Amino acid sequence: MMEMKQLQYFVMSVDTGSLSKAADMLYTTQPHVSMTISKLEKSLGVCLLKRSKKGVEMTPEGELVYEQARRILKDMQVIQQVQRSVRSEVFSLSSMPSNLLAGLFADFYREEQNLQARYLEGTLEMVLHQVTHRRVELGFIFVSEFQKNAVDRMLEQRHLEFCKLKDTRLVLFAGPGNPYYDRESVTKAELQKIRFVQNLEEGIPLFQHPGNLKEKLVDSQFFYRGVEVCSDHAMTQLLLKTDLGNISCLMDEKKRKDGRIHRIELEDCSVKVCCGYIKRVGRELSGCGKRYIEYVKRGLE
Fold it and tell me: How far is Cα 295 from Cα 287, in angstroms, rounded to an integer?
């Protein structure tokens, strides 16, 4: 007899493209996932997955079962959460670290009624992963000119689409201990003389590219002398209490400790950064998702 767990293991294996990755997501072992799917195949009398060293791929029969299995699991989730759904709307999103976006989310939540929400922060790779695997409905990312081609390929491979919200540019943020604190602008040459606190990056750096040294703002050796964080609180405290600087965009410095963190322009930096959101291709946003996008658009004006 077919079991719900068998469908869950099958769908997770397809979504991750690997039995071992599915096992990690399901907090079990790869042999157990393989055995459970084999039982499903035996009960249905068809082969659902082609297994190889590179991962798993659906057979034509598997594609038919996958679509139905997803519907069944979704319906079961709705049934299990019906009481909670009656009481509140469910909304989830993920974002690269941004004080401004976090503030907009807090303001939106304050105005909404009966909202059950999830707000996650992480690197570009983490945000893409969370949207791809349906952990969240929306993902907010920043993409510089250095990253665009690579990010476009990543989105296409994961069946995601990017919707632009605002073009911005990189600036230096500094606290009272930074030597450029009272400056209105700094040059690339001057940036080489200070240390930095930067948000953790994986894969493709936001504003440095080894193939385009002319536009490199700061040599990588200077970042190794600084601090990497994945926390807005840590970023704020380090800027306020040390001489570290931060190069980023869309940071609402007016809300940071009564304006004690200053925004300083970069004189000879032409790198543009685009802020936008990603969602799954063909996926219509929920009512709450649509309202939130409109709220963010107004907040970024």
Answer: 12
